[in-house]
Each structure stands twice: as C-alpha cells, then as structure tokens.
Amino acid sequence: MRIVTGAEMRSLERKAFETLGLSSLVVMENAGSRIMEVLKAEFAPLETRRVHILAGPGNNGGDGLVVARQLLALGARVKVYLAGDQKRSSKENAANLAILQKLGADLAAVDFKQLQKLRWSLNFADLIIDALLGTGFSGKLEEEWAALVQVVNEVQCPVVAIDCPTGVNSSTGEVASEAIRAHLTINLGLLKLGNLLYPGRAHAGRNVVVDLGFPLQASGIRRELVGPEALGWLPERQPWSHKGSHGHTLVVAGSVGYAGAAALCGRAVLRGGGGLVTVAVPEGVYNRFSPDELIVVPVPEAEGGTLGEGSLEKLRGLLAGKDVLAIGPGLGRSSQVVKVVQTLLSSWDGPAVIDADGLAALSPEFLSSVPPAKRRQWVITPHPGEMARLAASDPASVNADRVGIAAQCAEQWGMVVVLKGAPTITASPAEAYINSTGNHGLATAGTGDVLTGLTAALLGQGLDPVRAGALAAYVHGRAGDLAAERGARGLMAGDLLVFIQEILQ
Q1: Which residues of 155-173 are buried (b: 16+ CB within 10 A; e: fewer)?
Q2: Among 175, 318, 353, 417, which one is most buried in terms of CB atoms within 10 A?
Q3: Both 77 and 129 in a single domain?
Q4: For all residues of the chain together, what is the average pLDDT?
C-alpha cells in the first residue's frame, strides 16, 4: 500500500485535476461518499444517530460538510460546528456549506470563548467527526485550537478523523502541542505517512484508506506499508527440495555471558525456513549449547571470552559453502571483535545481515573501503541508538525522522537499512517500507537477535535484501502480536519462534 505525505497528496491531486480535467467539487463528493461507506460499515445503523461534525474552513472541512449532507439524507441527527474564519473558506467548502444552509441543517459557529458549551453539546453525540484541518496542518496549534482539541479528547465518544487527526503533522507524525485522539482515521486516496509514525500513529487509531474515484499517478513515490500481502514474496518451495535448497547461513555471534544471542539467532534462521545454519561461537561458550538442530562450531577466543584475531583463520574457513553471513549478536565491542567483523565482511562476497555489536565495526572509513557491489548485498539492523552513531546524530533526532534517516543512510552507503522501532523502517537507496506489525512486548532482550536470524533465512531462500528486510520485520512483528495475545508484558524473545513457523507455513 503506497504511503504519501500531505504535501505529496496535494501535488498528486493537482496533477490529476490538471491532466484529467476533474472537478474538485465532484472529487469532494466522491470523498464524502467513500467516507459514508466506512461510517456505515463501522457504526451502523446511522439512522437517528446523533453525529456531530467539526468542520474547518478548508477542503478537509468541505469533506465533512459533504458527509453531513449525506448523513442527513440517511436520517441521522446531524449537528455541524464551523471552526475558524469562514470568510477564508475554500470555494469547495463554501459551496457545500451553502447547500447545507438551504437544507436548513443545524449549523453553529464554534465560539472559542465558550468551549464549555461545546463540551456539553458534544457529550450528547453518538459519533464525532474531525474535519477541522486534515493534512494541511504543521507546526503548533494556536492556543484556542489546542483548547478545542482538548475538549474533543475529553468527550467519551468515538471520534473519526478525516485524512489526519487535527494537530498531527501528516508528513512526520509530529504532535507539537495537542492533537485529537481518533478511534478511526479515514485516509483519502492514499495512506498518510504521519498517521503511521509516532506519536501521530497513537492519535490516528485504526487507519483505513478509501479511493477518490480516479487513479493517482504515484509511481514516483517509493514508500510502501508492509502488510500480509508481503508473504507473497516468499519463493515457492518445490516438493523435491532438500535442506541445501533453502540456504546455509553462517551465524557469527556470542561471547561469554551472551550465548543466548547466538542461539536465538541460529534458531530463528531455521524457524524462518533456512535449510541449514552453522553457529560459530567462542570456544568458551560452546559447552553452553545442548544438542539440537544447530550446527555449533567452537572458535578460538581472545582474552575475555570474545572472538579475536586468533579466531580469523577458522572463521574464514567456515565461510566456504555458505550462502548468507549473519554477524554481530552478542559479540562484544572490543577492538579485536571490530577487526574480526571487518575482516570477515571484507572476505565475504554474498548477502550479509549485520546487527548489534557487528554494527560497531561499520565506521565511515571501513564502509568507504568496501566496494559498492558488496554493500548492496548487506542488510543492517540498527536500533535508534546504533542508527544515531552511524548517522552522526542522536536517538531523539533519529526517532523524529525515522523514514528520512533510514533512507539517507541507505542512499549514502548503498545498503539496506532496517531501522528497528515503532514502526520499523526498511530502506534501500530506491525505496522504503514501513512495517505494520509489532507491539511494546517486543521491547525485550533477544528480539533483535531473532530478527537477524529471520532476515538471514529469507536471504538464503532467495529474497533480495530490501524485501528480505521488510518481510522479516513484518513476520517478526506479527509473531510478536500473536505471542502478545497471551500478554505483551512479559513476552520473551524465544516466544516468537513458534509463531514465525505458523506465519510462514
């Protein structure tokens, strides 16, 4: 599903109007009809329901006015509150307001000095529709508008936002002051980016998308929401295939105290459909593993129980015959570990997943020394703190522009970036995917190691790096959602493994 910013959507609409000669009033009527379809599906029966609509002076308010008229035709009890300077109304808004006036609709101007009266009235509503500002808002709400939003949020009634909740930046998800907390947001034409990025996502509630009755030429916008349809990217498995058909991954991971990172990563490779996995660990960690499906190989270790330069000969030998390299979970960050990671990545010509401590090796100097053809096969999986170091930024700035930062890093270094968090962003130099799954239960030790193994498994089965990263994030989050049905608080990384198998069946 394509994702746009508010500005991009307005540009697409202008181009469509110019190219197709569409009437903006007809398009607004189409939008109102599609909104009505959603309202009927979600809140039926609407007949005799008390629906209060907050309408601003722009085209978002115009959409709300069309909905008001169609609700009246259905028999709903509609009251419209007009907010803002009606002298500055768009022509489409003014035209639809004139029709309501001729119909004798219940219209009232919002008196910002008497908001307690509005609160009293809204308490009688069965449904409130937010058609105040939509995608045109950015910055900070004026004080009186913020007070209006506060009133709406205090009312115990379902709220539906048209296109974007008032107070949410439709391009960034930023909420600079107050913002309406909607139960449902109806995105017109295409899904708006600000409704997917926190904190805006927390205000949008559930997102639905409706078409506007004409095609939108958005081919130049390479930003997609990853949903269950992405499972169709999985390659077909032939009945006569064998374990060698589905990829052999070498996992280089673990150190004293962090054997679990290596185990979780290796098991996730197998649960993700990988045919074989070899887990290379420091020899002092080897006895922590009990016999199971993992091929565990002890490697000479350095002082402190980590890999070191003395590990390289054996590790280089283990690269032979492998299809994917997964490196980083639980390795530690000593200078010797950095040397090991850099040497192995320089020696390896296939797809690789680099996570956790492995990311510490990705200095600008090292990345510049690696041929672009190698880097194109790499998937890195940083959390915001790790991304901040790679981007010479800070975690707060990364989270404020998750899509932009991930895309910028992918473009700069020519590799796929899976920026973990809420939501997880997968970016290549050409496109970006925003994950639709996951919950706070995934904020626990080891879940990143599972994501690394799952990504490696998909690479080993033939997916290109950006689709492997995006699908791994989706499946990982979906497994977390299924595991959280038992309770998100207390979810453990190992809980994901069985659900991964279920999702990928």
Answers
A1: beebbbbbbbbbbbbbbbb
A2: 353
A3: yes
A4: 95
